[in-house]
């Protein structure tokens, strides 16, 4: 009960009129950005990160939690209405949700996605409050070899699980690791990959990298396949669910939560695998097998719950170990570091008030998401009718403003353009973005821990297997890679890649 008492104390600190206002603003802004075509929660958080600058840490993280959950809700909205997932974890939602929308059940699809997300997010946050302190206590005794193993697990799993090609994932990872090398060597003090440019002597700001890769890269990709006509969307009534919809949804919500949280709590590559497993599970358990592929509500409820439970679970390794396992977690890690807070084993004791307020803010943001956004679903749908030139011009403006606000240096805008071109090239050649972002953030940490482990053992590489936890992690990595190969051979019947428009512009290009 001690941890729950601390969570209750954080909730009391967070529930003030000012903080509730910041949470509501965060939810509305996150949904506003997340509902735009092709923009997932990671890009929404990266784009709106500068909005939190200047606030006190508690208020900033409460607003950040609202942006986070709002961006996730926006991603499910575009998946259902446009068949255009903003991220790979929303693919399964698009598979059945868009079929429901075309059958005139868009309101029910949006409702089961929102309510399932609320239930899974609430349960997941409570589980984080229980497990993160326990993991932090254990992590205090973790040595450098185990940290190296955990980071390698996060990097390799994320790179090989995402996308259709493991090679492309690894190429993106090594690009990120190379970008992470820019700046002074922490041991020798010598500049690396700075090319004589003084501004590159310091390490690159992750905000500039993330906004350039996500926001600018996406805007350039859309501009390269620009259509001036607005997207044709499906009319949305007031989201509601009938008695039969509730009966068919509540079990998938709980099963999806049970499947999703463990995958988020370990460095296992995000929510793609649990959403896939949840969809397969619901299809196996469905009474009417023929309804799947035509708009089964279970196929929306289960994967959406798994997605949000996994998203809540990712706070366990983020807070307790300082290891982000998703693109959104990477951007949130950058936000924490921007306030001089380094997640890890000591965070739960050194910044306990802030941690428990942050966890409480997740509950607040999750609740406000449901209260505010269900009635506003028709309004968010109308935003999708904004012509593309005006829409992405605004995105470019805020991206440049956010990059400049980091250091008030015009050079950062040039860097933003460079990373935007890199993001465009990655989309053109099918390279996943998440491994690059993780490489930029975790690369320097991996280098530091690797050097520490080798320094203790006088350069003996066998020391990297010198701790039981390190051996266990490498075994998990091997098993996970085998699971990846098995899942690649097993697809749900009737599931074809062409059923899902991962990006509407890609169809134009083809």
UniProtKB/TrEMBL annotation:
Pfam families: TctA (PF01970). This is Putative tricarboxylic transport membrane protein. It comes from the Bacteria. Coiled coil: none annotated. Keywords: Membrane, Transmembrane, Transmembrane helix. The keyword Protein biosynthesis does not apply. Residues 20-438 form the DUF112 domain. The chain crosses the membrane at residues 20-49, 109-132, 144-162, 169-186, 206-224, 315-336, 356-379, 391-407, 413-443, 464-487. It comes from Nocardioides szechwanensis.
